[in-house]
Amino acid sequence: MKIRTLGLQFRQGISGLWRNRIMSLVAVGSVTAVLLVLGLSLLTIININSITAYIESSVEIKAFLEEDLDTAQVETIGAKIEQMEGVREVEFETKETALEKYKEQLGDNSSLLEGLEGENNPFPSSYIVRVDDPNTIGAIADEIAVFEGVEEVQYGKDVVERLLNSTHLIRVVGTVLICILAFISIFIISNTIKLTVVARRREISIMKYIGATDGFIRLPFIIEGLLLGIIGAALASGLVAVVYNYFFVTMNSSFEGVFVMLSGYFAPFAETLYRTSFILLAVGIVIGVTGSAISLRKFLNV
Amino acid sequence: MISINNVSKIYPNGTVALNGINIEIHKGEFVFFVGSSGAGKSTLVKMLLKEENPTSGSISVDGVVINSLKRRQIPYYRRKLGVVFQDFRLLPDKTVAENIAFAMHVVEASRREIARQVPRVLSVVGLGDKANVFPGQLSGGEQQRVSLARAIVNNPSLLIADEPTGNLDPDTAWEIMKLLKEINQRGTTIIMATHARDIVNYMRQRVVTLERGRIVRDQERGGYGIED
After folding, report:
1. pLDDT tens track for B168-192
2. Contact criterion met (CB below 8 Å) for B1 and B157
3. From CA A219, how far away is CA A292, in angstroms rounded?
C-alpha cells in the first residue's frame, strides 16, 4: 500500500469517527474506563512489589524498643536476645542511626526529614537480629516480641506475606473488572464501527466492483478502531498520572513523616508512569483493533 | 477473450438459473444478453463479476479460469472489468470528478495519473464541464455517463453493462448506447444485459438470447427475437 493511499485511508478513518461523534465519545469513554482501572491496578501492584522486594532483601528481625527505657534495660534486652539459640548477630540501632539511614534512602528528598532531629525524632531505637536459619525467624521473632521493653517486632516474611496476599486480591479483582470492562468497550467499539460500515455500505459495494482489495476496504475501519483505542489510552494515561500524583501529594501532606518513611520503597515515579502509559497504549490498541475486527467480521461481508 | 463452457447454476433453493450454457466471446465484440427477467441474464452477469460461482462448468476470461480464483485474487480480476448498473451507483456526497477519482484511488493510481485521466474520461462521455457538480444535480442520463466514465477510467479490457438504459428515457438511452459503441470501437469488449428491444434491434450486434436458463439463440448482427 502506498503512503498516499494510507493518508487517504487515515482521513477516511477520522471522518468515520466524526460521523458518529456521540458513539465515538462513548467508545473512547469506555476504553478510558478500562485503562484507568488497569493503570491504577498496575501502579498499585508495581508499588507493592517494590516494597515487597525491599523487605525480602532484609531477612532480619527488627525489634523496636519502647520509648523511655534506660541504658541498663536496653542492654539487658540485647543480652537476652544474644543468648537465644539460632541468633547469629545482634546489632543495636539508635534513634539517630535510624533517622540517618532513612535520610540516606531518601537521597535527594532527605530535606523532607528536616526538623525531625533530636526531640522530634519519630524513629524508635531497635535491635536488628540476624538468625542462622531463615526458617527459624518466625519462632525467634515471636519469642522476642514478648520480652519486656520490646514494643513491636517486625520481620520480613510476615509483611511480605500480607503484601503478597493483597496484591493477589488486587490482581484477581482487577483482572475480573478489566475483563468485564474490556468486553464492554470492545462491544461499544464494534457497534460504533458498525454505524460507519452501514453509512458507507454503498461506497463499499462500489469499491468491491472496482476491484478494491479486502485490506483496502477494511483499513479505514481498523484505523477508526485504532484511533478510538489510542485516544482512550491517552486520556487514561493522563488520568492515571493525575491520580497518582494526587495520591503522592495528599499522602505527603496528610501523613508527613510516616508517609515519607514509606515512599522510599515506592517505585520511581516518572519511570513507572511512563511504563504504565506504554502498557495502557498497547492494551488500548488491542481493544480498538479487536472491536473493529469483530465489527468487520460481522457486518462487512467483503 | 471470454469462454463460458457448459455452465450451470442451481441455487440452494433448487432453482435452475442456468443450464448448460456455452458462449465464446472474442476481444472487441459487442454482445447483448437478452431475455425476460428470470431467464438467467443477471446470473450470467454476476458470474462474470465473480459475485456468483457456477455450480458446474467453467468460465475463463483472458485465459484465466475465474471459477478457481482465490478470494484475494478476485479484486485484481475485477480491475480488468468496468461495470455499469441500471441504478448508476454513484456516491452522492462526492462530486463527479471525485466519484471517478475514487475508482482510481481504489487501484492506487498516482495523483498525477488521476489528474490526467479524470478530465480525459469526462470529456469522452461529454461531461467536461460538470466535473465539480454533485450527482444529485445531474439528470439520469448524465449520471449514467458519469458511471460510464468511472467504469472506463482504469482502462478495462471488458465492460459489463447490466441494464444500463433501464432507468432512462429513450433519447437519453440512445446517447448512452452511442457512447458504449464509441467505447467498443476503441477496442473494449462490451457485454450488455438488457431487455430494451428497440435498442437491440437497432444496434445490429451479436445477440445471445436466454430463456429459462438456456441459450435459445446466438446470432451475429441479430435482433431481439421474433416470438416476443
Report:
1. 998 889 999 999 999 999 999 999 9
2. yes
3. 10
| Rounded (10°) CA dihedral B131, B137, B141, B145 | 20
Per CB-CB distance under 8 Å, the chain A contacts of B154 are 210-211
Task: Give the pLDDT band (50/70/90) at residue B228.
Answer: very low
Q: Where are the alpha helices (DSSP H) in chain B?
A: 41-48, 74-78, 96-106, 111-124, 140-152, 170-185, 197-203
**Phi and psi for B156 in degrees, rounded to 5?**
-75, 155
pLDDT tens-digit map of B88-142 = 999 888 899 999 998 998 888 888 999 999 999 999 999 999 999 999 999 999 9
For residue A268, count CB atoms less than 10 angstroms from its CB and return exposed for 0-12, middle for 13-18, buried for 19 or more: exposed
Residue of A nearest to B81 (CA): A210
Half-sphere exposure of B190 (CA within 13 A, CB side): 29
Q: Please spell the DSSP secondary structure of A141-156, one letter per residue.
A: HHHHHTSTTEEEEEEH
Q: Which single residue is written with the C-alpha cell 531505637?
A: A125
Alpha-carbon span A291 to A284, nearest angstrom: 11
Which of B108, B117, B155 is most worth mutating to test chain A (most A CB atoms within 10 A of its CB)? Answer: B108
- ipTM score of complex: 0.83
Q: In what order do the strands lie in the sheet with B81-85?
A: B81-85, B158-162, B189-194, B30-34, B206-211, B214-219
Contact A124, A93 (CB under 8 A): no
Q: Helix, strand or coil for residue B134?
A: coil
Signed CA dihedral, B198, B201, B206, B207: sign only: positive
pTM: 0.70
Q: Are A210 and A268 in contact (CB under 8 A)?
A: no
The residues, any chain, with a CB within 8 Å of residue B184's CB and separated by 6 or more, are B28, B30, B159, B190
pLDDT for B36 equals 85
- Integer CA distances (angstroms), A285 to A40, A180, A222, A288, B25, in order: 18, 17, 10, 5, 51
Q: Are A190 and A294 contacting, i.e. CB atoms less than 8 angstroms apart?
A: yes
Tell whether B217 is within 8 A of chain A (Cβ).
no
The pLDDT of residue A289 is above 90: yes
Cβ–Cβ contact B115 with A under 8 A: no
